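Example 3.2
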Amino acid sequence: MGPMPRLRSNVAEADMLQRLITLGHIGWAVYDGDGHLVWRLAEAHTGAMILDANSNPIDGGQFSKRHALPVDTFISEVKLQEGCVPHLYLDTSGKVTVGYGHMLTGADAAVELHRAGFTFVARTNICLSNELESPKAAVVRIDQIRLDFHTISHMKAGQIASAYGKAALVQLSGRSMERLLVQDVRDVAVKGVKSRFNQLHTYPEEAQLVLLDFMYNLGATKFNSLRWPKFHHALSVRDWKGMSEECDRIDGAGNKLTKRNQRTRALLLSAHKKEPYFIYPKRFKHLTG
């Protein structure tokens, strides 16, 4: 075999070095696309240390890298994927929903939303062509909110939003919808992924966006390893390309979320380009292509 590869400045490879230390995989190694040993992690009296192919120590401290969650970017993604409906409507599963995909479990939930400062206003004389703007209308009575929930919940699911708008008496103000989106992202998506994935801060930003979207879209009860075993396995070995092949979602009516799936796949393939490695038993493997 020819001369062993020297330490390179490739960011993806450098990140892998740090993760060997972070994950504590003593005895694991990094191989290049030809199967040649690049680095391995050994045990020293001071803890884990990185050795090159000739067993020379390498300082891995310079490779430390953390990725802050791209929350603002994700909020922009949600606005594109979910769309916004200011009045109550039924999603494809028949659940009463409002704003950027905020599900309401009952009339009481709608009322509590209003009392918490997410203000419903009357739709009378509202310019429906610009529903995102806060309408200059009187604040509604509680019984009007309850009536809207009762009316919308008994309509046929899966219709276009305007069909429910014709029957609605109230809607959320534009400012309330924006605040509610930020709260939902924080309480559902961010808290969900932080509690589920302890290596989240080491994932590429594109992978973080995908996990945030899955958690926001499906919720913690549906987004788990039992329902998504291949997806989670690929994640556990940092196989972003493999994840891209297991990311198709459907709506409540069984229809593929084509645009959302395409966006998810594109993000994961972008992560793969940044980090073309995944974990094999007892070693990291560098994948080509």
